[in-house]
Amino acid sequence: MHNKAGLLFREYMLVGGMPKAVSKYLESGKSFHAADVEKRDILVTYRNDIGKIASSYRTKVLSVFDQIPAFLSQHEKRVRLKSIEGGEGIDYEETFFWLSDSMIVNECFNSTDPNVGLSLNEDRTYIKCYLCDTGLLISHTFDESQLAEENLYLKILKNRLSVNKGMFFENAVAQCLTAGGHKLYYYNHYNETLHRNDMEIDFLISEGSKISGKLNAIEVKSSKNYTTTSLSAFLNRYGRKRIKNAYVIHPKSYQEANGIIYLPAYMSFCL
């Protein structure tokens, strides 16, 4: 059952949830290519809609929209707003908000002090940007010629093609959390001695109780071999007074160990 559910989750990531793409996929006898054609039409529609906005924003919005796969493929998926093609931070901040308000992307903000009221410690200098639908992200990531062959989709489905699966899994989890009503935050800690980030938590979400004021910390792992160094360090730093649950979302089955709950990716919607 676990293997079947995992396969269905990967199938969902490839097709996505856009109604026309799902309909074409089913009507064509589960042809990934037929669904891909529909998804590319949707992406063209997004670009056409962007082309209708004020000229002062148009170029910047298109630039960010086109770079979403590149942002997510980086080891550190966060984007420093002022670093985008030399643009001013405030301009690009508004650009991201336009894409979010249009329900094209899901934004994830940096929380500098993970505590009750995440928005009170929100740092908008850096932002992570996820596409609203993971199926669209896959079509947006690859050139049309790269995914023209049905076999390529099948290889991705069965984990037989070397691609950056991490960005797709993380995007799917962001999609699930957003659908569950969560505003997305992440956390990273910069080590002044090492001159690098030595701790990053993919997602922080409110536990839901204003009385307890606790958070849930989430790390996403796309492979079966991984470490939980950042999550363990985060728990040691802030403890259970702030953190209610620590989750690792991974391809393996459900388990609990050392104070961490390990969830298979297809259970992301339960959070």
Helical content (DSSP H or I, runs of 4+): 40-55%
- In N-to-C order, the SSE pattern is HHHHEHEEHHHEEEHEEE
Mean pLDDT: 83
Shape: globular
Assembly state = single chain
Percentage of residues in strands: 15-25%
Major β-sheet profile: 9 strands, mixed
End-to-end Cα distance, whole Å, is 20 Å
Radius of gyration: 19 Å
Spatial arrangement of strands, main beta sheet? 1-3-2-4-5-6-7-9-8
Q: What can you see in these coordinates?
A:
It is a single chain. The protein has 271 residues and is of the alpha/beta class. The chain has one domain (2-270). 44% of the residues lie in helices and 22% in strands. It has helices at 2-15, 19-27, 32-50, 55-73, 89-101, 134-141, 150-157, 165-179, 229-242; strands spanning 79-80, 105-111, 122-131, 184-191, 196-206, 215-220, 243-250, 255-257, 260-264. The protein has a nine-stranded mixed beta sheet with strand order 1-3-2-4-5-6-7-9-8, sandwiched between helices. Helix 3 packs across helix 6 (134-141) and helix 4 (55-73) crosses helix 5. The longest helix has 19 residues, at 32-50. It starts with a helix and ends in a 7-residue tail after the last strand. Residues 86-90 have low confidence and may be disordered.
Summary tags:
globular; 9 helices; 9-stranded mixed sheet; alpha/beta; 271 residues
Topology:
Layout: H1 2-15, H2 19-27, H3 32-50, H4 55-73, E1 79-80, H5 89-101, E2 105-111, E3 122-131, H6 134-141, H7 150-157, H8 165-179, E4 184-191, E5 196-206, E6 215-220, H9 229-242, E7 243-250, E8 255-257, E9 260-264
Parallel strand pairs: 2-4, 6-7, 7-9
Antiparallel strand pairs: 1-3, 2-3, 4-5, 5-6, 8-9
